[in-house]
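User: quick one - fold this with adenosine-5'-diphosphate bound?
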Amino acid sequence: MKILIVNAGSSSLKYQLIDMQDESTLAKGLVERIGMGTKGHHECKIDGKKVVDWNEAPIENHVQACQMMLSALTDKDFGVVKSMDEIGAVGHRVLHGGSKFSASVVIDDAVEAAIEENIPLGPLHNPANLQGIRACRAVMPGTPMVAVFDTAFHQTMPPKAYMYGVPYEYYEKLHVRRYGFHGTSHRFVSKRTAEFLGKNPEDLRIITCHLGNGSSLCAVDKGKCVDTSMGITPLEGVLMGTRSGSMDPAVVEYICNNEGLTVSEMLNICNKKSGLLGISGVSNDMRDVDDAATKGNPRAQLARDMLVYGIRKYIGSYAAAMNGVDAIVFTAGIGENNYKLREDVMQGFEFMGAKIDVEKNKALAWPNVHEAVVSADDSKVKILVIPTNEEIAIARDTLELVSK
Ligand code: ADP
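Assistant: Sure. Structure tokens for the protein plus adenosine-5'-diphosphate:
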């Protein structure tokens, strides 16, 4: 079966067509500047080559974006399918499933309504995800669709891990709690770790470190999430590209009062102008921050130190939460590609039985990135690099659900 993966943003639509026979990517594309009134952009790559690079008229809405995607996929010259009918199902990435979804689901009107109900929890992403779903359902009415939620894997957390210490009524009335994100990646990577080590997930306590532009850590005990660093929104946790990560909430009021900002203006700063970017003043991209730090920029060095220190603290606390740890796994843009950061994060963890093999770890320097154990042979705790693949995870869920 060929499965189309769709990730809709408020003005964009990313897609990938996967052949489930060998899980190969047949086509990958991006429609941008949807509904912005300016010229839209559509690019589609097949076998890594751009077959569409379109920048012409404005793109009115997500329905039009879906039509553009389908006409590229079915193009008679370069298309990868003869007709839409060859696409067996569509898997949609959805940010917030709230407490309602602990697994992926086949989309029907009730699921659409539940995603809509979760808009207050995911105000930036859920409306856009929903637009993508509605547009695809309109354009491909006979094709089954599945929603895969970023929050679902974390639904197994116990209340002591997901509750915030504010009055209980806010949980009851407003559903205020930790939800966690990147769940599809943490699930994929932790499951793959068990397979790679030839172990049963039931016998493993794993800490997965998804370190990208957005970063989160997850404690996975016996295959289930027991804690994660992101919260009611993706703002909580370690320092990220542009997000502050955790801090005393009083910082928000203090800065608002002194700078004449509203809470939402301040939260926008915490989400978009903080983190590596805000501290270093250089960039949100770790490569630029690393370069600047190497050249002696003290704020870039500080940003890097804060990130490393933050990750180390979460690793220590999750080891405590699970009464130990068997594997620590690095994934996503920074986790997979930045060997030096892995080396620095794992310094001095011998007290806990985790010892990195500096040479093995360095051998994985970009572009030689692949699944590997990078801990020393005598390390009790395995340290691994497992590249994440959220699209494949979404495609597998979709196939499983529509085959039932
Ligand atoms: P997103 O959260 O947007 O999916 P990614 O997982 O792509 O982000 O991670 C982006 C981060 O990964 C950036 O900080 C970037 O510096 C880092 N990164 C990506 N590729 C490399 C590379 N080849 N070497 C070092 N760092 C990289």
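One thing worth noting: The chain has a mean pLDDT of 97.
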